[in-house]
Write a structure and sequence with these properties.
Length: about 325
């Protein structure tokens, strides 16, 4: 498993559209190489800012690398499965897929492998090894880092609620990373509840309202996504709950960065999971169709902690996400 650091990590976590020119630039002679190449792309529907940015960056990277992009988006796993099957039928040269759900899209990955089409899985994983390459952020690291942050802030004691996501490797790993550290290192921190916020601000708001009604004392909120963190923060403020001192997110949304920067009523933190990572996934797919295999099958990009102390390094007011 390869963890990319240094210049690559710095280029990805900024979320402002800046790129490492060496990482994302076409190989020498790429425009000629790639003129007839078709990269199929299968993503969930852009129902929130992070996914919308992923789709835009994926298209942009394909154009910059000189390939034709066949983009599909789906609002449910059955539609995404059909999209993948259609791309296989079209005999695309390679396919980049962000599975809506891990188990539901694993059979689709199997069909891509059976058709001998290179498959680059991005972000959420499939349940087996039937892919050519995987590019993702450090989801376990997000959970562990959030647990360490809250454990230190709470001085090892308090009540925490979790706003998680739909069934996928991302949800599983971010929650497991968090609970493992809490259970082993901070046994006096009690996890009161865990509920699916669907990676959406509106659902995060709704889930937080439920938590506020059910629990009179909450010290901190761990959300696995910045959009949900924004919804939770809105619910906390509307309810005028002063017991909640800490909220964490993940992803690197500029709106949450601004809250981290400006908030005085609550301490906020997030952990980077930039949509710019998809550019690496598309580059890997283009390299594969040109005969260049990735150095490692799995590429994991690090999750950096962002707090009021360093948020100015990440916040870009004009960022797409």
């Amino acid at each position: 498993m390869l963890a990319l650091t240094g210049v690559l990590a710095a280029s990805l976590v900024g979320c402002g559209g800046q790129e490492a020119s060496q990482q994302n630039a076409p190989s020498q002679g790429a425009s000629g190489q790639n003129a007839q190449k078709v990269i199929g792309m299968s993503f969930p529907h852009a129902d929130h800012g992070w996914m919308g940015a992923v789709i835009d960056y994926a298209k942009q990277q394909g154009e910059e690398l000189g390939v034709k992009v066949e983009m599909t988006t789906a609002d449910n796993p059955n539609k995404q499965t059909n999209d993948v099957e259609d791309l296989v039928t079209k005999k695309v040269d390679a396919l980049v897929m962000l599975p809506m759900e891990t188990d539901a899209l694993t059979p689709a990955a199997d069909k891509v492998k059976a058709a001998n089409i290179p498959l680059v899985v991005f972000d959420r994983e499939v349940a087996n090894g039937n892919y050519t390459a995987l590019v993702k952020g450090d989801n376990v690291g997000i959970g562990k880092n959030a647990a360490e942050f809250l454990g230190e802030q709470l001085k090892g004691k308090g009540n925490v609620v979790i706003i998680s996501g739909p069934p996928s490797s991302v949800t599983t790993q971010r929650v497991q990373g968090f609970t493992e550290v809490i259970n082993t290192k901070y046994p006096d921190i009690k996890i009161l509840a865990d509920q699916n916020g669907e990676f959406r601000k509106e659902k995060g708001y709704e889930v937080m309202q439920n938590f506020l009604q059910a629990h009179s004392q909450i010290d901190a909120v761990y959300t696995i996504d910045d959009e949900m963190a924004l919804g939770a923060l809105q619910a906390i403020r509307e309810a005028k709950r002063t017991d909640i001192k800490y909220v964490t997110g993940a992803g690197g949304a500029k709106d949450f960065y601004k809250e981290i920067k400006d908030a005085t009523d609550i301490t906020l933190a997030t952990f980077t999971y930039s949509p710019l990572m998809v550019k690496e996934a598309v580059k890997v797919a283009v390299d594969i169709v040109n005969g260049k295999q990735p150095a490692q099958k799995d590429t994991v990009l690090p999750a950096e902690k962002v707090t009021k102390e360093n948020v100015d390094q990440y916040y870009k007011a004009d960022a797409e996400y």
